[in-house]
């Protein structure tokens, strides 16, 4: 709710009121006498409605009103802003049911019939065997009974007695106070985030990443998770005590750590469990930022930010997009992409990696979504645009080059260095180097070789083949040889032999 002062004529007032109506901001009060020709002071009490966080909302309301005044070119001053949060209470749920007929206790009945009546009453109140199908939301048992028996248009009235029960049974138990419906959902999301953070800390401990100073940092994270869970629980359950909230925070953290340790031990490789949890947490933060951006803007305004981020994903369905990684790797050996045939499965895997690297640009629209959610992107948007443009270019460059192509070239250089020292380089996205000895089929001088001379006593590093031509890397000259695959007999070796003459 904002109190604004407008200095202007009746035309300015009419212009402002029309703009407020188009924005959907109701005017609750207007004070002052308007004039057609003389500027007068007019005060308005306006309710500005917009999505976003309650933090910094007062500043967001002021800047939105000032931005509207700047667009209208009117002399308007915001004098006071008060945060007004409308969050309906999450009322308890009740179910209307017809209690079964029972005999008074003073009436003498066979024991079996008495127990049968008690069982029917218990089932009707706790299992819902006699529900009428009406759901009631009420604060007190009396209000719930009244709403359960109230007639509704088009619904037949029940002739017998109708009562109201809770989902867990019981109709006379005191109802605990509830928090707001929207705030309760946001607090539940916070608990989920805290649980994932606690699981990541447990996985880090199991993976052995927390040694020395790292151990204390993980312990600090766990203390933060326990404190945050206790705070959120006390806010969600107003009747909870400090001791109960502390116990809940400790149990919550213990369960999260146990889940993290279990996932880390079930992972195929050490460090895989904590890495997956961390990537999942970062991905959730990014997706939530994009969601906040869509929530703040219309799809027409959001599309220019999302389309550039989705284009790499669309092109990512083309496996050939990931061949740039193989090109950089093979370039270290002086080879081209067509010299080695890459299996389709590894082309797909490389494509997914390069797509993930390019999609690092999603940090930019996600950052914009959080800025708008916390009302930091209302006025002076030229500065925000400059920051986002800089971040976008940096992330796109870092994603494509720093995380995609440059590491591929470095992996190729490392493979060349390992081969020169006689070690077997590790496989890289479908390229599986191995040491081999070769013998010609027929005379050696009759084998056409591109790139040098072939020797039967030298061990070569086989990088692959394509279209019937095998690629062999010579560690002596540091060059690659290409020869017809059907003119050679190739014998693999587990490691580089000193000489192939003994073969």
How would you characterize the overall build of this protein?
49% of the residues lie in helices and 15% in strands. The N and C termini lie far apart (90 Å). The radius of gyration is 36 Å and the shape is flat. It has 13 helices and twelve strands. A hairpin with a 4-residue loop joins strand 10 and strand 11 (479-484).
Would you summarize the structure shown here?
The chain is of the alpha+beta class. Helix content is 49%, strand content 15%. It has helices at 10-23, 57-72, 111-126, 141-149, 181-207, 213-236, 242-266, 272-296, 299-315, 323-331, 344-358, 363-373, 381-420, and strands at 2-8, 27-31, 40-46, 75-81, 93-97, 131-137, 163-165, 434-440, 460-466, 469-474, 479-484, 488-493.
In terms of quaternary structure, what is this?
single chain
Average pLDDT, to the nearest integer?
A: 82
> Low-confidence runs (pLDDT<50, min 5 residues)?
none
* Main sheet record: 5 strands, antiparallel
Give me the count of strands.
12
- The Rg value, from CA coordinates, equals 36 Å
Query: In percent, how much strand structure appears in the residues?
Result: 5-15%
What form results from the Cα inertia axes?
A: flat
Q: Residue share in helices?
A: 40-55%
Helical region count? 13
Supply the helix-strand structural class: alpha+beta
What pattern of helices and strands is seen along the backbone?
EHEEHEEHEHEHHHHHHHHHEEEEE
Strand order of the largest sheet: 11-10-9-8-12
Distance between the termini: 90 Å
């Amino acid at each position: 709710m904002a109190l604004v002062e407008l200095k202007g004529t009746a035309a300015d007032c009419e212009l402002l009121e029309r703009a407020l109506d188009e924005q959907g901001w109701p005017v609750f009060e207007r004070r002052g006498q308007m004039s057609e020709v003389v500027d007068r002071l007019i005060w308005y009490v306006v309710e500005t409605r917009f999505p976003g966080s309650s933090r910094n909302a007062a500043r967001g309301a002021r800047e939105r009103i000032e931005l509207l005044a700047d667009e209208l070119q009117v002399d308007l001053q915001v004098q006071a802003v008060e945060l007004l949060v409308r969050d309906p209470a999450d009322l308890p749920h009740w179910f209307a049911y017809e209690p079964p007929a029972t005999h008074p206790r003073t009436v003498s009945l066979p024991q079996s019939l008495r127990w049968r009546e008690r069982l029917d009453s218990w089932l009707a109140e706790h299992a819902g065997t006699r529900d009428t199908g009406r759901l009631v939301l009420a604060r007190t048992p009396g209000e719930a009974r009244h709403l359960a028996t109230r007639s509704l248009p088009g619904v037949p009235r029940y002739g017998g007695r109708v009562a109201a029960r809770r989902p867990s049974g019981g109709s006379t138990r005191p109802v605990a106070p509830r928090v707001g419906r929207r705030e309760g959902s946001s607090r539940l999301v916070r608990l989920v985030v805290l649980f994932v953070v606690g699981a990541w800390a447990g996985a880090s401990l199991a993976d052995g990443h927390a040694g020395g100073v790292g151990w204390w940092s993980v312990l600090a994270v766990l203390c933060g998770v326990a404190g945050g869970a206790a705070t959120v629980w006390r806010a969600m359950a107003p009747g909870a005590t400090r001791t109960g909230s502390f116990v809940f925070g400790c149990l919550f953290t213990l369960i999260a750590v146990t889940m993290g340790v279990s996932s880390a031990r079930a992972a195929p490789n050490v460090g895989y469990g904590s890495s997956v949890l961390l990537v999942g947490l970062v991905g959730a933060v990014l997706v939530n930022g994009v969601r906040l951006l869509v929530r703040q803007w219309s799809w027409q305004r959001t599309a220019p930010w999302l389309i550039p981020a989705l284009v790499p994903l669309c092109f990512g369905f083309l496996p050939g997009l990931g061949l740039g990684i193989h090109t950089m790797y093979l370039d270290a050996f002086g080879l081209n992409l067509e010299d080695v045939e890459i299996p389709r499965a590894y082309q797909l895997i490389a494509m997914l990696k390069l797509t993930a690297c390019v999609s690092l640009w999603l940090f930019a629209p996600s950052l914009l979504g959080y800025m708008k959610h916390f009302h930091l992107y209302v006025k002076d948007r030229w500065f925000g645009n400059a920051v986002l443009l800089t971040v976008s270019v940096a992330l796109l460059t870092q994603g494509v080059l720093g995380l995609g192509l440059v590491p591929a070239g470095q992996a190729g250089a490392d493979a060349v260095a390992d081969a020169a020292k006689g070690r077997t380089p590790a496989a890289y996205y479908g390229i599986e180097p191995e040491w081999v000895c070769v013998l010609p089929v027929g005379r050696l001088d009759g084998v056409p070789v591109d790139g040098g001379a072939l020797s039967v006593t030298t061990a070569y590093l086989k990088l692959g083949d394509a279209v019937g031509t095998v690629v062999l890397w010579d560690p002596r000259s540091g060059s690659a040889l290409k020869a017809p695959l059907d003119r050679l007999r190739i014998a693999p070796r587990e490691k580089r032999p000193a000489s192939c003459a003994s073969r």
